[in-house]
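Entry for pyridoxal-5'-phosphate complex. Fields follow.
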Amino acid sequence: MLIMESRKYVWVNGVLVESKNAKVHVLTHSLQYGSGIFEGIRSYSSSEGTSIFRLKDHMKRFENSARIYSMNLGFTAHELEDAVVEIVRKNKDRDCYIRPFAFVDDTRIGLGTQGKKISVVIASVPFGSYFDDKEKGVKCVVSSWRRINSSIMPPEAKASANYLNSSTASLEAKNAGADEAILLSSNGYVAEGPGENIFLVNGGKLLTPSKDADILLGITRDTIIKLAEFKGIEVEERNVHREELYTADEMFFAGTAAEITHITSVDKRKVGNGKKGPITRILAEEYSNTVHGKTDFKEWLTEV
Ligand SMILES: Cc1ncc(COP(=O)(O)O)c(C=O)c1O
């Protein structure tokens, strides 16, 4: 859970504001209708200090989300990157989750967003593991809720409203005694977790759903693909059938919050021997080393 202490600061439209004073009206358009876009970024501590992982890529996606919804952010991606560094520095936490959020800051009743004020805020909170016990892995069920698609709302935009689809799937999974859901795309292929992309390992090869499955194109997903290629592990991006979830040797989620978390079962069928598999182990370790500045992929790190 993200808990914001009142002594911390939030960047609000270019100004650092004490979090207790960073408030919105209850009738704010985005609060009522979900008309916000956001990012989830992590900073990590290393022996050399604190660095933010793939900041430029996150800000590019933030900008793209804004473009999809015709939101004028009023700041360049570069200015927002500087703002992220500023807030992490100001709040003095090292291992953080950073949340840039742009929203329709208008209290008038009415769905239209045309001409309405857009506000941009950036918060940072200390953050550890997303799942209760990452080392134990997660039990999953395939959700009866399908992932949104481009004919309904754009899955490639990281928009607040999308997450009602995600949290409904998560709720269903928890109610069924599982830790997390796996959503299928509207045409029945494996899409992703509610807030994570998914990877399968079969016969030593890595497999992940392609963009055609209406996934959010995750930055961790891209990182894993690149790290796998670097490690000489073959990667395939294609449509994945549901039953492949039942026959995979290994499986894991990849996301900024979830990092690399192995999946132990799907619909009560054990994945492999139910433990973290060897390829998952290699990639999780390489990922952890990379975000902590211990590999050659230093261009992904922005020093705070
Ligand atoms: C629906 C969804 N898919 C995938 C991801 C993983 O994306 P990333 O690796 O960029 O955090 C996220 C997390 O933001 C997400 O919300």
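NOTE: The CA atoms of residues 197 and 254 lie 5 Å apart.
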